[in-house]
Amino acid sequence: MNVLMVAAELAPLVKVGGLADVLGALPAALARRGHRVRVVLPLYGEIDRDTPGLRPRPEFRSLPVRIGQRMQTVRLWVWRGAPDGVAIDLVECDALFGRPGIYADEMGRGFEDALERASCLCHVALMLPEMLDWPADVVHAHDVQAALAPVYRRRWYAGRDLPGAGGTVLTVHNLAHQEIHGAERLFRTGLPQSLGRYPGPFEFFGHLNLLKGGIVECDLVNTVSPTYAREVVADPEVGCGLEGVLAARGEDFTGILNGVDYGTWDPAHDRWIAAPYRPDDLAGKAACRRRLLDDLGLDAGPRPVVGMVGRLVAQKGFGLVVPLLDRLVAGGFTLVVLGTGERSFHVALGAAAAAHPRRIAFVPEFSEPWAHAIYAGSDLFLMPSLFEPCGLSQLYALRYGTPPVVRRTGGLADTVADALDPAGTGFVFDEYDPEALWEALERARGLFADAAAWRALQRRGMACDYSWDATAAGYEALYARLSPAVAAPERTR
Q1: The pLDDT value given to residue 488
Q2: Average pLDDT in the 234-248 region?
Q3: 74 and 52 in one domain?
Q4: Tally of domains within the chain
Q5: Are strands 70-79 and 54-56 parallel, antiparallel or unpaired?
Q6: 32 pLDDT more than 50
Q7: Is the peptide bond before 12 cis (omega within 30 degrees of 0)?
Q8: Nearest to 79 by CA among 58, 106, 56
Q9: How far apart are CA 265 and CA 367, in angstroms?
């Protein structure tokens, strides 16, 4: 079948978080199963126009497209760097995408024209099947920036193909990102204002909620782990106000666990680490550990090296880590943190690294080489998330023989078994509390002292298979549920 995907990120062209990794891997996995996938994303100003394989489509050099109440000039580009069976199209609109930043400006402020940006991406994506003579059997939208695609499919193309049946799937990668605006702004999407008033799909406590509209209007909706799918309908804190909307979808709301691209994330052939290694020969991991400590100026020794890679935000558990920084040093750990995010966490980590320069290292950036070096060179990987839709970092850590310390939530609960279990692969705690995290770290330190038991734990983790093939099969089954006739009853609140 032909699957048209709409998304805001795709590795390696543009990456802010795990969404880019998903779009870099899932289309290829579907293509290996015999499907044809086309991914549409914005051509941001930050994307290097000289990227090999990136070029304008000569047949579509200038397209006038109505976005809300204005006409915008759009050009289409294509990137030829994707695997066979996958096509990548990029939407260029200087007025909307040409500035620096993907979701926000340099001060972290969301763009005022976020609705127009989403409208442009989704509008053009739905024009492509006819323009390129490429019938779309499925329109698969990813996250809030693509949430208008199923709405436009239902409202603008009702009762007709694109060409192609064009049944719609919306994958919610993180329910916390919803794009809530004043209800009066709905006109910016080209949709009637009535859809933003009760009982319209976008109405949200007197405001406009872009993600809610996509959830209500799509044919099927899913999120990225089974446990997170259960949590968001059961816990208002995790559901972020949309728990009732998702519960109302019933069996049309499911969870499919993300996968890992082991072509990129595998210490047996990772070009960014000091030495390769495998489950049956971990000597290379010791070399990676030495290189990491040397490069960061940290003391070597028998202390467990704890790594963290990710956004410095409360969701990722930094509110638990910061109160423990001095205790980590006193308790016999070495800490390495890579990431950017909230200023308060930057300040706390920077101060701790300055106070303990041989025991704590803070790298305030995102760097793919540094990330690989930390996964390979650390003894433990710390991921004490407040909530976690799926998480990829713990899956990378497992493959690199770096047992994760995680909170039992979302995809972390689905992928990490506690070391107390005979099949354990890491260390799991329940309460969102620094003391609960510290108890898990102490258990990890105790097992780390038993070399044979630690190697067995590492090897069990490295043997886990979270490849994209199983995930692609899950999406294939989801697509198969879509009726060729996608005209369906109107859905409201």
Answers
A1: 40
A2: 95
A3: yes
A4: 2
A5: antiparallel
A6: yes
A7: yes
A8: 56
A9: 15
pLDDT at 484 over 60: no
User: Is the domain of 165 the same as that of 299?
Assistant: no
**In the structure encoding, which two tokens stand for residue 181, read together?**
């605006």
* Cis upstream peptide for 163 (omega within 30°): yes
For the chain, give the mean pLDDT: 94
Which residue in this structure is represented by tokens 């799909």? 201
Whether the pLDDT of residue 141 is over 70: the answer is yes
Q: pLDDT confidence of 483, banded at 50, 70, 90?
A: low
Using a cut of 0.85, tell me whether the model's pTM lies above it: yes
Pair (243, 121) in one structural domain? yes
Q: Are residues 238 and 291 in the same domain?
A: no
Query: Position 129: which residue type?
Result: P
Q: Is 78 contained in some domain? A: yes
Tell me the residue range of the domain where 352 lies: 283-465
Length of the chain counted residue by residue: 493
101 and 187 belong to one structural domain:
yes
Please give the structure tokens belonging to residue 326: 């001095």
The answer to whether the CB of 152 falls within 8 A of the CB of 104 is: no
Average pLDDT over residues 151-168: 90
Name residue 390's amino acid: C
Task: Report which DSSP code applies to 14.
Answer: B
Other Cβ atoms within 10 Å of 317 Cβ, number: 25
Per the CB < 8 A criterion, the answer to whether 170 and 198 are in contact is no
Residues 6+ apart with CB under 8 A from 20: 9, 10, 11, 14
Six-digit token string for 138: 């499925």
Q: Which amino acid is at 361?
A: A
For residue range 391-418, what is the model confidence (pLDDT) as tens digits? Answer: 999 999 999 999 999 999 999 999 999 9
The answer as to whether 267 is a domain residue is: no
Per the structure block, which two tokens stand in for 56? Answer: 């304008």
Kindly tell me if the per-residue pLDDT of 487 is higher than 70: no
Question: Is the pLDDT score of 431 beyond 90?
Answer: yes
CATH number at residue 331: 3.40.50.2000
